[in-house]
Amino acid sequence: MAYYRSNSGAIALIKILFTMNKLYKTTQSMFLAWVILLAFGTSAHAQEPQWKLSLEKGVEWTKYTPNKILLVGSSDWGLHGVDANTGKLLWSNEDLYNSAKSLKGPDGKKLGYTADLIQVLEDPNHAKISDFALVKYTDNVMVKNFVVINIRTGEVVINPKMAGMPVVKVIGPEVATFNYDGSGYIQELKGILLTASFVDMYQAGKPYTQITKFIDLESGKVAWESDQFSSIFLPIVTSDNHLLFIGEKTSAKIDAKTGKPFWTFEVADKKNNFEAFDANIRLTEGYFYQKKGNQGVVSAVELGSGKVLWEKPLSTKDAPMLKAENFGVIVSDEKNFTLMEAESGNTKWTAKKLSGIVVDLGRDRGIAVGEKGKYLTVLDKNSGAEKWSQKIKGIQIDQMTGAGIMYQDEEGSIGLIDFDGNLKWGNKDMIKGPGVLRAKSALDSEVFYADGKVFHVNLVTGEKKEIIGKVDFNEKETPDNLEYTGANFILSSSQNMLGFDESGRVQFQQHWASPKISLAGRIALRTMQVAMVAMAAANAYAEGASTGMMGYQSMASRQYGIQREFFEDMSGAFGQAANQRFKASKSRGVYNFILTDVGEGVGLVKVDKVSGKEVGKIVLNDKEPVYDSDPENGMIFYKPSKKEVFGYTF
């Protein structure tokens, strides 16, 4: 987490990390972080901290980790590990972020510390995994780094150079070669994958070279390696716990224990690459597009055996988008929108030119296509004929429900279209945006706050019910956070909290007055927690619309299909997996921390979210108290000066 200061009172929020590695065996790794900006004056005496840490260089960034290590980034781009209970400095490493000094943002300005620079690993079934973290960053041009560290000792466990990946020098320092998006931690296998593909300019004939190494996380030792395949994005873990690699020239299913291929599928012409790929939701068939001779070809491959099921020519100038479904593959290029049958590859139909995210609605409901932020069009999957279309400005598919397609319009309002194209709730009946807040307690229901009201939506039936008619917060504050704690819902602003259950029964409503300072100094201080199981909520469209290399839509982007199957069959393996994901996450984020007058001066109160009761308070004598916290027990890591961090327990 980065520390920020501002006299304008802006709140810096760091998003919860979310990882989804498999469809049917899903594990969430989540943690919460807080970045607070405050400005006030007080003459009270600060309470003595439990511990104090001083660094010679300035403290720029902190991150609390599940194993009670506080990571501290210093102004010289060093990284330090601190025992969060005692404040003891465990280790320092000044080399991990050296190349990050050169990172620049879209505006060309240098970047400071961000939450993305380091990912602490988590596994609810293996606590020791959180002893490790990935340092990974790139500017997508010259700078890239990949390091695994033990955050208890500061030891570098592995990096591409240590693993023996080829080292090259073009401009600047020597860099070990690795595919940035294809290298990372594979949670199901408890290992690190390093993979590379490149033209070896130093060898006679300049051959295309592939290298892949699988490294045991705890030991840092290479378990297996191969020069037969590579991957341009992190390999997919299959249902039998092996690995599906999709490379530029070679795709393969690999034995995860030995690294031996079960099968490989190569490009027909080595001078060309696979330019597009997608797989159906059950990972039974994959579809590849490549240039072969002077024409394009789409090939269907059985992913269990590697058998080529069919191959069909495709006349197109540019690489098409492929969207695989169980009944076939949709091919969208600059001219046509075509369905190839799953069994034969024969063209079943060609529709008018469409563009946008493609969603199978299941059963005989059709195929939905979001077009250019103006239309939502549904085609008959058997004929390609238009079944219905809705014109709505700025329309984006939000998520699939059992009753239809939830969407957002240009104002951020939420509506629902049923599977026949009728507005189940739209226009005046929409959940009005902007500023809609939402939280899920389960995959079949969601709670929304909008325009001063709270709604409950049954995602199976589409029923929308107003459960709280008017929310009034003191100091004329507007709620800016809604979360599900595992026991209740909390609607909050900087100085107000409202707790209620799924029926809308208010359990408590509390207000803590802002310190008696100028309006400019009333800066929010509180915990931000995102709904724990919002698998495909507000950002589902963005995930779905974004495509990776070769046009492949990542597994996270396939939430529509997952949701559709969930609502078609509320029981079964996926429903069980979804429940496990939720139960593994609900223990986090127990407290809110609120700036107010605590009697002895201006400070913080610690509030239990479930009961709404104060369970602690602390006085901080600082014009700009900046800190983050341990989301499990509420310990405060406070920065009283540029070079210090204090630890408080209260």
Automatic annotation (TrEMBL):
Pfam families (alphabetical): PQQ_2 (PF13360)
Alphabetical list of SMART domains matching this protein: PQQ
Pyrrolo-quinoline quinone repeat domain: residues covered: 295-464
Domain of life where this protein originates: Bacteria
Record's protein name: Outer membrane protein assembly factor BamB
Higher taxonomy: Bacteria, Pseudomonadati, Bacteroidota, Cytophagia, Cytophagales
